[in-house]
Amino acid sequence: MTDARLLGDDEAAFIAAARSNDAAQFALITERYRRELQVHCYRMLANYEDAQDLTQETFLRVWNKRESFKGHAALRTWLYRIATNACLDFLEKRNDRTPVPAELPDPGSEVLYLQPYPDRMLPEDPQESVVARETIELAFIVAVQHLPPRQRAVFILRDVLGWPASKAADALELTVASVTSALQRARVTMREQLPDRRLDWRSPATHELSNDERGVVKSYIDAHERNDLDGLMSLLRDDLRFAMLPEPGTSVITAKDAVDGWVSGGLFQRGHDDWRCITTTVNRMPAAVLYLRTPDDPEYRLFTIAVLHIVDGKIAELTGFDATDKPWLGLPPTL
C-alpha cells in the first residue's frame, strides 16, 4: 500500500490485537466497518444475501491475514482491498452472476439475481449517506452488473469511492495504465446503461425522498387498498418499465397494459383483492410493501415489495420483489 500517513488509532489497535491474537478486540475494531463493506460487496454483487456472505468471508480473510497488516495504509483501505478481491473470487466461480438477455423492444438484459437493499442496513456515516442514494439505487446497481468483474471493481473503487488510480491498482494488483484503461471502458458502458442519469457519482446528492415521491407512494397505496384500477393506471407512465424478480420478463408497457396484465394474472380478483400496504424505502428509493388477506385468513400476510422510480410525479419503473422469506428486509410478516 502507498498511503503516506501516521499510524492511526484503529491501525495501532488492530496491530496490537493481531499480535496478541485477541479475537474479541479484533472483532470490536473490524465490526464498525461491517455496514460499509457490505454495501461495497452489494455494489459488486447486486444481491443482499451474497453481500452478507462475502462480508463475513472478508472478516475471515482479515483474521487469517492479520499479521500481514503493518499499518502502511489505512485499515479501511486494507479491508476494502480484501473485500473487493473476495467478491472477485466469488464471481470467478459463479457463472450465474451475469445479466441475461431480456425480451425488450430495445436491446437490454436482466439481472435476475438482483435483491433490494434495506435502508436500515446502510452505513450511518454522514458522508456515505450523502453519496449513497445514486450509487445504491436499483438502476445504478443493475448498470454496474453489465461491467466485467475486474472492470466493475475498478469503476467502484475509482468513481464511487474516489480512490486514486495508484491505490486502486495496488488493491487489484494491476498497473496504473490497466486501471485507467479499464475505467475508461467502464464509463462508456455506464453511460450506455444510464443515459438519463448524472455521471458524477462522487459529488454530493441528497438522499432524502422528495415530497413528490412521498405523494405518489401514498396515492399508489391508496389505490391498491381500494382496488382502484383507474387510480393505479393514472400513476403509471405510458412507457412503464416493469419487472417482478426473480422471474424473467422485464417489459416496457403502457399503463393500461400493465394494469390489465396484473388483473389477468389474478390480482384484484376475488381472493387477491383485500390489501393493506405500508411505505418503506430500500436502495434509498420509495417502496410500497403489499400485504394480502385471503378469505379464510384473519391476518394480512406479507406478499411483495414494489420499489418505485418516480419521475415528474409518475411511476417510471416498478420493480417487484417477493418479500417472503427475507427477514433481512425487517418487515413484519403480518398486519
TrEMBL record:
Molecular function per GO: DNA binding; sigma factor activity
Keywords (A to Z) from UniProt: DNA-binding, Sigma factor, Transcription, Transcription regulation
GO biological process, one term: DNA-templated transcription initiation
Domain RNA polymerase sigma-70 region: 31-95
PROSITE patterns noted in UniProt: SIGMA70_ECF
Source taxon at top rank: Bacteria
RNA polymerase sigma factor 70 region 4 type domain segment(s): 140-189
Quaternary structure and partners: Interacts transiently with the RNA polymerase catalytic core formed by RpoA, RpoB, RpoC and RpoZ (2 alpha, 1 beta, 1 beta' and 1 omega subunit) to form the RNA polymerase holoenzyme that can initiate transcription.
Sequence similarity: Belongs to the sigma-70 factor family. ECF subfamily.
NCBIfam families the record matches: PRK08241.1, sigma70-ECF, SigX5
Protein name, as recorded: RNA polymerase sigma factor
Phylogenetic lineage: Bacteria, Bacillati, Actinomycetota, Actinomycetes, Streptosporangiales
